[in-house]
């Protein structure tokens, strides 16, 4: 009994010593995780746990983001998780996102997981139009995204419509042109096919290298007011601080690079930027909330630290990571080369197998044809043998008939002498019959001539009778006959030939008009067809030129117009940032 009491006491003490916990849900760009955290944990404890779970070592780019009262905030590393203004209900949700962006993604992003997380985040920002991207760049970026997801293009696998369910282009770009989804897919696939041989990490890095040159890449915008109350935008990024017009987030009015800023501070809602050059006035502005000023300061400190860090020698940890990354990259390159060789060998083996199978089928067909020919030859031989037998029998029959004919000839010769007298009598009778027939023919000819003479006499008699009757009629009714002849002559339709000609002329004109109208309609349809298909027949070298004819100018946004103006002037993200510095030092008036 004493042992049982001691056991219960030990269990109770263990229960009391168990720390209190709360549940946290962490959402990355492509997954969600849940952790059980102790109430005493600070932001760094939770952040390190997430990084270890992801296998991430380049932690300085990332943070845990949450939203409080419609304002974005980041978890502080040195402050307890529960001391932040996070919702009380569980699980408490944080978003693991990139807080700071590199100046050069290819040089700074070492780990593949780091590159992948940046790729997913930047891609989402472009699709959500938080980063402005021109149409031609959107198509090129979409082709790299497809390469990262699907690997090398295979026309047998990636058939028409395989991108129908993919979100690859910003809606602004799709609405800007009169192009069907199939037309967009065709242009994306054309570039996708050119990326053959790129691994997923290489395609994602190419995506980031293009995206980092976009004007709004990596910039956090905040609404501010200057001392005069003018509404402006403050942009914070890896290069420095930038002041924008609210309607133009692409081109800053003035920029403060990090190496030219001496001090940044805030008091309540007022924020102060002190340039390194004391001849330049201090720039002050007001934000809407104190919390916003705290966030701005956090981003300024973090970006400034990374800015200075990039300009120093790499730390031992970074050097080790880069060495490991180079080794890993070399190993993967060798693996890819081995796989490529194996794939090539397999394809050659498959081609050889297909060729052998084809040859085997051909030989089988030839063997079948030879067998059929042999069977036909055997049948022909049998038929010829049967025919030879029949011919032999026929020859025997002919020989027998020849013998019988010879016997019949001898019999006829024997009877020929007896029939000679009969022959002479028959010839005499034939001569008599011929003489009788000749006489009958002469008599028939004579009778025919007499009949013709009678017919001629009858015709002359009728003609004489007709002349006599006519003369009699002329004597008795000369006047009546004359009137009747005149009336008959007047009744003839004199205009009939003219009517027929007019009718034919009308008919001809009508047919000619139909042909002209039909020809005009065919020509019009041909012109309309050529106009509709003109843009499909043109093969242009640059996609921007290719789709310019399909652009709907009335749907262009302000950022589209500003981007086109910057492009026509040759302005880019980097030279617009450096431009205000090249104009000399002068007091800031915004």
From TrEMBL:
- What keyword terms does UniProt attach to this protein? Cell membrane, Cell projection, Coiled coil, Cytoplasm, Membrane, Nucleus, Phosphoprotein, Ubl conjugation
Q: Give Gene Ontology CC terms.
A: cell projection; cytoplasm; nucleus; plasma membrane
Q: Which domain of life is it from?
A: Eukaryota
Q: Where is this region: Disordered?
A: 447-466, 563-590
Query: Which chain positions lie within coiled-coil regions?
Result: 519-560
Q: Which GO terms describe its molecular function?
A: actin binding
Pfam families of this UniProt entry? ERM_C (PF00769), ERM_helical (PF20492), FERM_C (PF09380), FERM_M (PF00373), FERM_N (PF09379)
In this chain the FERM domain maps to 22-311
Record localization: Cell membrane; Cell projection; Cytoplasm; Nucleus
Name the record gives this protein: Merlin
Q: Where does a 1,2-diacyl-sn-glycero-3-phospho-(1D-myo-inositol) bind?
A: 76-79, 294
Q: Does the keyword DNA-binding apply?
A: no
Which topology term describes how it sits in the membrane?
Peripheral membrane protein
């Amino acid at each position: 009994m004493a042992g049982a009491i001691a056991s219960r006491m030990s269990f109770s003490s263990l229960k009391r010593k168990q720390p209190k916990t709360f549940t946290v849900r962490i959402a990355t760009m492509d997954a969600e995780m849940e952790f059980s955290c102790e109430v005493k944990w600070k932001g760094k404890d939770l952040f390190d746990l997430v990084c270890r779970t992801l296998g991430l070592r380049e932690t300085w780019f990332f943070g845990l983001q949450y939203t409080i009262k419609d304002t974005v905030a980041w978890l502080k590393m040195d402050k307890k998780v529960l001391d932040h203004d996070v919702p009380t209900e569980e699980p408490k949700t944080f978003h693991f996102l990139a807080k700071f962006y590199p100046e050069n993604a290819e040089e700074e992003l070492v780990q593949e997981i780091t590159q992948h997380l940046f790729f997913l985040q930047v891609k989402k920002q472009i699709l959500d139009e938080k980063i402005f991207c021109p149409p031609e760049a959107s198509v090129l970026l979409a082709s790299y995204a497809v390469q990262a997801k699907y690997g090398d293009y295979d026309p047998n696998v990636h058939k028409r419509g395989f991108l129908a369910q993919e979100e690859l282009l910003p809606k602004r770009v799709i609405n800007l042109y009169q192009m069907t989804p199939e037309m967009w897919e065709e242009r994306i696939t054309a570039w996708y096919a050119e990326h053959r041989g790129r691994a997923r990490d290489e395609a994602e890095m190419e995506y980031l290298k293009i995206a980092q040159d976009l004007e709004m890449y990596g910039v956090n915008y905040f609404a501010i007011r200057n001392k005069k109350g003018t509404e402006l935008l403050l942009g914070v990024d890896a290069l420095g601080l930038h002041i924008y017009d609210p309607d133009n987030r692409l081109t800053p009015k003035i920029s403060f690079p990090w190496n030219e800023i001496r001090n940044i501070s805030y008091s309540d809602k007022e924020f102060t930027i002190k340039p390194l050059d004391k001849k330049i006035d201090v720039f002050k502005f007001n934000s809407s909330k104190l919390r916003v000023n705290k966030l701005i300061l956090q981003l300024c400190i973090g970006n400034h630290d990374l800015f200075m860090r990039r300009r120093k020698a790499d730390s031992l940890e970074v050097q080790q990571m880069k060495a490991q990354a180079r080794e890993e990259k070399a190993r993967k390159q060798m693996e890819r080369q081995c796989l490529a060789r194996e794939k090539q060998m397999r394809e050659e083996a498959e081609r050889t197998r297909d060729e052998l199978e084809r040859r085997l089928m051909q030989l089988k067909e030839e063997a079948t044809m030879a067998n059929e020919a042999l069977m036909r030859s055997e049948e022909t031989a049998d038929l010829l043998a049967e025919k030879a037998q029949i011919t032999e029998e026929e020859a025997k029959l002919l020989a027998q008939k020849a013998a019988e004919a010879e016997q019949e000839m001898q019999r006829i010769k024997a009877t020929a002498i007896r029939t000679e007298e009969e022959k002479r009598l028959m010839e005499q009778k034939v001569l008599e019959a011929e003489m009788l027939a000749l006489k009958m023919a002469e008599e028939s000819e004579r009778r025919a001539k007499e009949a013709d003479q009678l017919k001629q006499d009858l015709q002359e008699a009728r003609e004489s009778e007709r002349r006599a009757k006519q003369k009699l009629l002329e004597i008795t009714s000369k006047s009546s006959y004359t009137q009747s002849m005149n009336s008959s002559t007047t009744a003839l339709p004199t205009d009939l030939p003219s009517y027929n000609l007019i009718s034919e002329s009308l008919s001809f004109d009508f047919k000619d008009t139909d042909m002209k109208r039909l020809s005009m309609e065919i020509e019009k349809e041909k012109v309309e067809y050529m106009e509709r298909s003109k843009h499909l027949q043109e093969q242009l070298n640059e996609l921007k030129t290719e789709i310019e004819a399909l652009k709907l100018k009335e749907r262009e946004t302000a950022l589209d117009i500003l981007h086109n103006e910057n492009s026509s002037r040759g302005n880019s993200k980097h030279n617009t940032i450096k431009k205000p510095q090249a104009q000399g030092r002068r007091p800031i008036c915004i």
